[in-house]
Design a protein that fits this description.
It is built from 11 helices and 8 strands. The chain is α/β, with parallel strands linked by helices. It is globular and about 65 Å long. The structure holds 5,10-methenyl-6,7,8-trihydrofolic acid, 3-methyl-2-oxobutanoic acid and magnesium ion. Its cofactor is Mg(2+). Its main location: cytoplasm.
């Protein structure tokens, strides 16, 4: 049975841990979906893993719509969520509504995710939810703020920083989000947030005490040329791919194939 947003609350109540994977095109969407992921996220990390940029900032809304449409065709069972790209939602609430609207109307997204917390984003989240758009929040390391942070370091290490992230998470829940990504924060803080909130916490580099876990699928498959320290490779498809492609080149040159 296809996953719907209202199942997330039930899963949290039952203590059932949720598996989330990212995707960037038809094939990665199919792989994540057929593996049984509960949610497939078209993350803006695709700017790095699929497009080769150094960070997620260059990705445009048009590009995101294009990728999300491809993923949509491959995802049959999982809930499809899509990241709002940098600056597609911060300028004005009306622009956030329009950007989210395009992802739902043109790409068939069932939820959108946006980075950042209170006080600004809470109002935007509220407007989106009022319009019937399910929202996933995202706090801790928010990669779209890489220029401000100066890198992709762990966030919330001091008691003050930890409390600020907790307050942001509370504001995001109050605004009506149904889930929230906790990225690269101490496990203890992620545990506190998970115990405090009623909505689903989706951890990435945030320890084991979250309601759900997400990794970038390119890292899980071992496809990426680089990965964060908290990612785990379950295969080595990059090396296998290079070997297979090299075998083809060799066989063509030696006239073994065809
Ligand atoms: N392939 C991939 N996997 C990801 O999980 C991912 C992306 N790309 N792109 C978008 C963001 C960026 N993320 C990252 C990227 C790097 C670190 C990392 O290397 N952190 C180091 C410190 C790096 C620094 O000082 O700048 C660490 O030890 O915490 C963490 C998260 C997570 N996301
Ligand atoms: C890793 C997830 C949370 C994400 O935001 C992304 O892939 O862009
Ligand atoms: Mg993202």
């Amino acid at each position: 049975m296809a996953v719907r947003v209202n199942q997330f609350a039930a899963w949290k109540q039952q203590g059932q841990t949720v598996a989330v994977l990212t995707a960037w095109d038809y094939m990665s969407g199919q792989m994540a979906d057929q593996a049984g992921a509960d949610m497939v996220l078209v993350g803006d990390s695709l700017a790095m893993v699929a497009l080769g940029y150094d960070n997620t900032l260059p990705l445009t809304l048009d590009e995101m719509v294009h990728h999300a449409k491809a993923v949509r065709r491959g995802v049959k069972n999982a809930l499809l969520a899509v990241d709002l790209p940098f600056l597609s939602f911060q300028i004005a609430e009306a622009e956030a509504m329009q950007a989210a609207g395009r992802l739902l109307k043109e790409a068939g997204a069932q939820a959108i995710k946006l980075e950042g917390g209170y006080p600004r984003m809470a109002a935007t989240i509220q407007r989106l939810v009022e319009a019937g758009i399910p929202v996933v929040g995202h706090v801790g390391l928010t990669p779209q703020s890489v220029n401000q942070v100066g890198g992709f370091q762990k966030q919330g290490k001091s008691p003050e920083a930890a409390d600020r992230i907790l307050q942001e998470a509370i504001a995001i829940e109050k605004a009506g989000a149904f889930a929230i990504v906790l990225e690269h924060i101490p496990a203890k803080l992620a545990r506190t947030i998970t115990e405090t909130l009623n909505i689903t916490t989706i951890g990435i580099g945030a320890g084991q005490f979250c309601d759900a876990q997400v990794l970038v699928t390119a890292d899980v498959l071992g496809l990426s040329d680089w990965q964060p320290p908290f990612a785990k490779r379950y295969a080595n498809l990059r090396d296998q791919g290079i070997q297979a492609a090299r075998a083809f080149c060799d066989e063509v040159r030696s006239r073994q194939f065809p």
